[in-house]
Amino acid sequence: MIKAEIITIGDEILYGQITDTNTQWISAELDKIGIRTVRKSSVGDSEEAILEIFEESSKRADLVIVTGGLGPTKDDITKKTFCKYFNSELAVHQEALADLTEFFRKRGREVTGLNVGQAELPTNATFIRNTMGTAAGMWFEQNGIVYISMPGVPFEMKGMMTLTLLPKLQEYFKTPVIFHKVIRTIGIGESFLAEIIEPWEDALPENIKLAYLPSMGNVKLRLTGFGEDLATIEADVEEQFQKVLPTIQEFVYGFGNDEIEEVLGKILTEKKQTVSVAESCTGGYLAHQFTKVSGSSAYFMGGIVSYDNAVKINQLGVNAETLNTFGAVSEETIVEMAQNVRQLLGTTYGLATSGIAGPNGGTPEKPVGTVWIAIATENETITRKLTLGGFREQNIHMTTINILNLLRKLCL
């Protein structure tokens, strides 16, 4: 496996003024061609710090990718630092100058002296064309290690990688064939899932690796196969998938890039079923999960955000006595919310949420994170009590994930 290290340069990244999205994108693209990222680093606009990280990287990686520090101003020192590292010097590169001149000509501007400096490259660098900006990319080779320098502007970097560098890296390193397949699970934690599939995981062949990719409410299982023939690897990975699926089928909601709201949308559309929502603690977030899917008007009819008890009574039709006796966060209230919204909007399912999202509002009897969810159908109403206890945003998200998963199970 070819090992890569990615370095971002710029004080603005260290100060938190700019979010570094480059390293995530680069490592994902490298992974697709069989190059493994072993480390990511960020350093400021300091020659000493940059030289130090270059030296460290040379001991760990076959490929060092650098973004940032290629602008025309004095704080952009990447090229000068590369010169010092490689004992080289800057000189005007004619292709880079021609590209720069054409870039400005198309915009009705003249190349200034400051901009001409962007056409200066270390004499040992291979020029990499930037079709979307003024800072040229550079390719260096030393002691069997490839160093690549690209602009930090994301769309410029992505264009350079996609058009030129990824194909060039595949050819240079003769990278192995790599194939990923992902199972998406819901309603089970990472450790519990790992315990269930441990015998299968231990028996995986050497050329297939398993990765757990947990997020809030979901765990993705990614199988990665390595080899020389894509068809053979795909078949091997598929064989392993078929072995594990029966063990975890109840938790599997999709594959690849499937999202739970998209999967539910397809099921509801196929069955010609509809949904309405009555939300309290989720404040419209549940409705948003449905409506962010294109075509959701076919199955999502609408909802009521009954945040205040007066709205629960007047718009949703919850009995005032129920609220006074049991409170808004109770099974009795959530049942009426789900049943009433289903009847009001004439849908197959009525979904309801009510809880204490926090950080305030909790009591010893009903602490922060206490949530009731319900789904009403024509024949029954199913309820669940959740004890979440996280931060406000987590509680809202996990409440939504839980009721979507409950709906998934009802739809199957």
Automatic annotation (TrEMBL):
The UniProt entry, under Gene3D superfamilies, shows: 3.30.70.2860, CinA-like, MoaB/Mog-like domain
- Matches recorded under SUPFAM superfamilies: CinA-like, Molybdenum cofactor biosynthesis proteins
SMART domains attached to this UniProt entry: MoCF_biosynth
TM spans (from-to): none
One Pfam entry name? MoCF_biosynth
Which residue ranges does the record assign to the MoaB/Mog domain?
A: 5-172
Query: Family per UniProt?
Result: Belongs to the CinA family.
Spell out the protein name for this chain.
CinA-like protein
Q: Which organism is it from?
A: Arcicella aurantiaca
